[in-house]
Amino acid sequence: MPRIKLTEYRAKKLLLGDAYRGIPIIANEKPELPKLGRFAVKVDQGVKKRMKKGLVLLDQSPRAISGVVSKLRKNGLASSPTGGFSRFLAEPMLRHNEKDEQYVSFERVREGIRFMHAKAGGIEIESNPEAVETFILRNAADVKAAAQKTKLPENFLKHALEVFENNFFAFLEINPLVVINGKAEPLDAAVLVDSAGAFFVKDAWTADDIVEKTAGSRAEKNIEELAKTSPASFKLNVLNPNGSLFFLLSGGGGSIVIADEAELRGAGKEIGNYGEYSGGPTRGETYLYAKEVIGLLIKSKAKRKALIIAGGVANFTDVKQTFMGVIDALAENCEKLNKAGVKVFVRRGGPNEKEGLELMKNFLKKEKLLGSVYGSDAVITKAVDDAIKFIKVNRH
Hints:
Rossmann fold, 3 domains, alpha+beta
C-alpha cells in the first residue's frame, strides 16, 4: 500500500501524547494561543529543509505568532498553486546546545525495523552520511543493544517502536533529537504511514492529518501513482526542465550526497531532477521510473546532457535487477539519446553489484552511451564528477 505523510503536529502528538504542547494552526482560522512563553513557528506541510528555506522562525512571542504565520504563508505563494502554505505549527522553544542535536530514523524493511542514528544531527546531517550508524531491530535484545551502542535512553527507543508499530508507521525521522537529563525530546519529526492503516488505528490519525502533495509535471504525477502501488519507494521532483544533469539515484542518504556534489561543483543550476528509487523495486518498477527520468532528459533543450545512475551501497536492493529495468528504458530511447549526444555515468554498489555493473557497462558500450561505470570501490561522487566534466567540455 502507498506511504502517505502525516503532519508534524500529529506525528509528535502520537509520540508524546498529552505531554506535547504544540499548537496546530490552519490559515484563516484563529487558534487559542498562549499568553506566555517563547515559540518556534513553522510550516507544517511536509516541506523538507524548512530551516534553510526560512520556513521556521524561532524565539517568537505569543503576540507575534499570528504575524509570523501570515509571513510564512506569503512565503509559499510562489511555490504553491493553491495560494501559499495553509498549515503551521507553533511549539514551545526548548533551550539546548546545538552540539547536543542527534539524528534518528526508523524504517520498515524486509529484515525488520531499520534504525539509523548519528550523534551529530541538525540541518547539516546530510553532509555527513558516513557518521550514520545502522541497526536492524527485530526484538527487545536488538533494541537494548542499539540503546547501549548509541547511548540513547532505552525507554525512548522502546516507546518509539511501540508507537511505530501501533500506528502503521512506515518511516519515522526525528532530526534533531536532543536528550536532556535522560529524556529524549524530538524537535522535528517526519512520519510516513501505510495508507491501509487508516482502517485500524481507531482515529489515532485520520485524513485530516495527511499532508497532500501537489504534483506539477506529468512525470511527477506518474511517479506518484507508481509509488502508490508498490512497497518500494519512488520520488521525483523536476527542478529544471532544460537542465543538463539528470539523475537516477538510489537511497536517500547517498542520493543527497550525490546531488549536493553537483551543487558544490557549481553545477546546481544544471540539475534537471531530483528523487530516488529504493526499497527493493522490481525490474518492471525500475523501468517505469527510469522511463520518466529519461523522458525528461530527452525533452530538455540543453545542448549537452548526461544521465547519472548512482547511489550508495544497497543493503538489499538488487543492483542487477534494477539495472536491467534501467537498461530496458534506455534501450527504448537509444536512437534519441545518441542523437542528443547523451552519455551515461554510473556508480553503484550492493547485492549482485559485479554482475549488474558488467551488464550495464556492456550495454552502454554497445549502444555508444558509455561515459563511465564504477562500483563501490570508487567514491560515491565519482560518476557525478565525471558527468560535470563532460557537460562542460566544448559547451560554447
